[in-house]
């Protein structure tokens, strides 16, 4: 905890003092500025020292209560090799002086920010994104989810232990990846759910058109049977911590005993994300009433004065079905996007 306070103070005074160097295995980087923070995590813009001077985003996750969640996120970044999924450049686990640990995850730095930045700019400037541009970007997110959900474009590495006890050695994950089998074959693919799809977790590539799905700290095995009330509460508690309220699927707001959760939770969030990109906010972020009740009852409105086609709005409607089995899968959403694009 002491180290968390130190890092917080450092972030507040970074403009007053020269940045210290940080070693990540054989790399040396120096902090330039704070990009963002949340919980026990800080993300810094860093620059490589003594090399190319390349810039990266360094995520520092303080772990006062154990490293399991942070290492799960680290391993998730290493699971996939796809242009629409964030890659881990390097990682390390550091022992702090106070006895705690910090997991360092070095990621690519994208200068254009994320999709939420685009939405915020539209709201401030009272502008909108073109339907075609939104659908092309949304198409890339669907392709990323095809991979995460274990579709025909499959993970290129053997699955890491998403629920094991903490592992202090960052090299063990690399060793597991070297043992990969069935890479790209479509055999043995495991379905995972991201569980926190939202505009803030979709970076915009430096080309301005490529979406990159990020922040896999929420990712879990997609298929989970909920056998007891205790398990249901456990899932709900986990969702409250890791899944943003206005993009959270109804089945993880109120988890019924005897149900099986699936990757359909991401399809709901995908619909909310498309809505937010078009209309400036989540369909359940109205500022009126309870968002949870609105989600559970599927109560939302598509603006009548919007400038978007019925085909695009229909994608939202099909994703936002309260019953998970009524939602399309990622491949079917992609097909609807292609159809809507053809009509733009």
Q: Any overview of this molecule?
A:
With 344 residues, this protein is an alpha+beta fold. It folds into two domains: 2-108, Phosphorylase Kinase, domain 1 (2-Layer Sandwich); 115-155 and 190-342, Transferase(Phosphotransferase), domain 1. The protein contains eleven helices and twelve strands. The chain has helices at 2-12, 68-77, 115-125, 131-148, 170-178, 229-242, 250-253, 264-279, 291-296, 310-319, 330-342; strands spanning 21-24, 27-38, 41-48, 55-63, 90-95, 101-108, 192-193, 202-204, 211-213, 220-221, 224-225, 260-261. The protein has a six-stranded antiparallel beta sheet with strand order 1-2-3-4-6-5, sandwiched between helices. It is globular, with a radius of gyration of 20 Å. It starts with a helix and ends with a helix. Belongs to the protein kinase superfamily. It holds the Pfam family Pkinase. This is non-specific serine/threonine protein kinase. Residues 29-341 form the Protein kinase domain.
**Alpha-beta content class:** alpha+beta
**Unreliable stretches:** 1-6, 8-18, 153-187
| CA-based shape | globular
The description of the largest β-sheet is: 6 strands, antiparallel
How are the strands ordered across the major sheet?
A: 1-2-3-4-6-5
What fraction of residues sit in β-strands? 15-25%
State the end-to-end CA separation.
53 Å
- Rg for CA atoms: 20 Å
The CATH architecture of the largest domain would be Orthogonal Bundle
User: What's the level 1 CATH class of the largest domain?
Assistant: Mainly Alpha
Summed up, the helix count is: 11
State the oligomer. single chain
CATH superfamily of the largest domain: Transferase(Phosphotransferase) domain 1
Task: Classify the fold: give the CATH topology of the largest domain.
Answer: Transferase(Phosphotransferase), domain 1
Mean pLDDT: 84
Query: What is the total number of structural domains?
Result: 2
Helical percentage: 25-40%
Reading the helices and strands in chain order gives HEEEEHEEHHHEEEEEHHEHHHH
């Amino acid at each position: 905890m002491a180290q968390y306070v130190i890092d917080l103070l450092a972030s507040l005074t970074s403009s007053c003092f020269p940045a210290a160097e940080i070693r990540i295995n054989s790399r040396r980087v120096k902090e330039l500025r704070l990009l963002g923070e949340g919980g026990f995590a800080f993300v810094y813009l860093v620059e490589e020292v003594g090399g190319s001077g390349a810039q990266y985003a360094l995520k520092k996750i303080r772990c006062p209560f154990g490293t399991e969640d942070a290492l799960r996120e680290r391993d998730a970044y290493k699971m996939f090799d796809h242009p629409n999924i964030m890659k881990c450049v390097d990682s390390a686990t550091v022992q702090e002086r106070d006895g705690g640990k910090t997991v360092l995850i070095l990621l690519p730095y994208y200068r254009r920010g994320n999709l939420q930045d685009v939405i915020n700019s539209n709201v401030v400037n009272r502008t909108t994104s073109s339907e075609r541009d939104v659908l092309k970007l949304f198409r890339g997110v669907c392709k990323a989810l095809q991979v995460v959900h274990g579709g025909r474009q499959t993970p290129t590495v053997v699955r890491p232990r998403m629920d094991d006890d903490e592992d202090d050695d960052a090299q063990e994950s690399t060793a597991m990846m070297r043992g990969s089998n069935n890479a790209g074959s479509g055999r043995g693919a495991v379905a995972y759910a991201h569980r926190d799809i939202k505009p803030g977790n979709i970076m915009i590539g430096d080309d301005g058109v490529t979406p990159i799905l990020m922040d896999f700290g929420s990712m879990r095995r997609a298929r989970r049977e909920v056998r007891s009330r205790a398990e249901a509460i456990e899932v709900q508690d986990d969702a409250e911590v890791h899944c943003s309220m206005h993009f959270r699927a109804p089945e993880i707001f109120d988890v019924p005993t005897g149900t099986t959760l699936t990757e359909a939770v991401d399809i709901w969030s995908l619909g909310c994300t498309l809505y937010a990109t078009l209309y400036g906010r989540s369909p359940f972020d109205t500022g009126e009433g309870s968002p949870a009740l609105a989600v559970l009852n599927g109560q939302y409105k598509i603006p009548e004065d919007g400038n978007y086609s019925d085909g695009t709005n229909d994608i939202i409607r099909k994703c936002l079905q309260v019953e998970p089995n009524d939602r399309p899968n990622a491949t079917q959403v992609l097909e609807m996007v292609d159809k809507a694009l053809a009509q733009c």
